[in-house]
Amino acid sequence: MCLLILLLAGLFGYYATPLLTEDSLGEEQELSDIPYAEYFQRYAPITGWDWHWLAAIGWEESHFNCKAHSSSGAVGVMQIMPKTAVRFGLNDSTIYEPEDNIRAGAMYIRRLQNIYSFIQDSVQNQLFVLASYNAGPAHIMDARRLAKRYGRSAYLWFDNTEYWLEQLADEQYAQDSVVQYGSFDAQQTISYVKKVRRTYDKFRVK
Predict the structure, then answer these.
(1) Where are the alpha helices (DSSP H) in 12-152?
(2) Is there a contact between 65 and 9 (Cβ–Cβ < 8 Å)?
C-alpha cells in the first residue's frame, strides 16, 4: 500500500501538493479516504483514543508518506525516531512499514500517557501528550516547572504550561534554576498541538 500511495503522490504532484490538501479538508469538500485507516483503527485501542487522532498525527507528521525522513532522523508515517523504534521492536527495515510504524507510534503515545498519568483530566493529558510527541517530554517538563514557580498551572496546557514552554526561548528563563534542558524554540510545538486538534476535527466529521 505504501508503494501505491507513493505512486499516486507522484501522479498528483505529492511533493508540491499533498494528497490531502487544506482545501480537501475544508467543510465544503468531501475528505478523501484516509490512507492506512485500517492500521489507525487497529492500533488506536493501545492509546484509548479515537482512531482519527492517530490519523491526524500521521497527517501532521508526514502527510501519510511512509518514506518520510526528517532532518532530525525521524522516519515513516508517524515520524518515529530510530531509538524509539528499537524500543518497540522495529528495525531499519520495518520502521518504514506503515503498519509497524503506526503501531510504534501508538505505543509511544501510550508511553507518554503513562508519563503524564498524574494529569487525570483526559483532555489536558492529551494536550501534554501531543506536545511531547512533537518536542519530547524533557522541555515540556521544564515548562511545567516554570509554571509551578511563576504561578501558572502545570496541569493545564493552553495559556499555562504552553505559555512557559514559549518562554524557554528567552535566556532569562532558559537559565532558570528549575530548568534542566536549556532553551527551546516552542513555536513549532505550540502550532503542532493546534494543528493536530484541527485535523482531528476535520477527519472525524467525514
Answers:
(1) 37-47, 51-62, 82-87, 98-115, 122-135, 137-149
(2) yes
Position 87, amino acid: R
pLDDT tens digits, one per residue of 7-25:
444 433 333 334 444 444 4
HEC secondary structure over 176-195:
CCCCCCCCCCCHHHHHHHHH
Dihedral of CA 156/70/199/95: which sign?
negative
C-alpha cell at 12: 498528483
| 70-97: pLDDT as tens digits | 988 999 999 999 999 999 999 988 999 9
Task: Based on the residue annotation, tell me whether 22 is a catalytic residue of this protein.
Answer: no
Q: Which of 60, 61, 97, 162 is catalytic?
A: 61
- In angstroms, what is the C-alpha Rg of the chain? 18
Q: Rounded to an integer, what distance in angstroms lies between the CA atom of residue 81 and that of residue 73?
A: 6
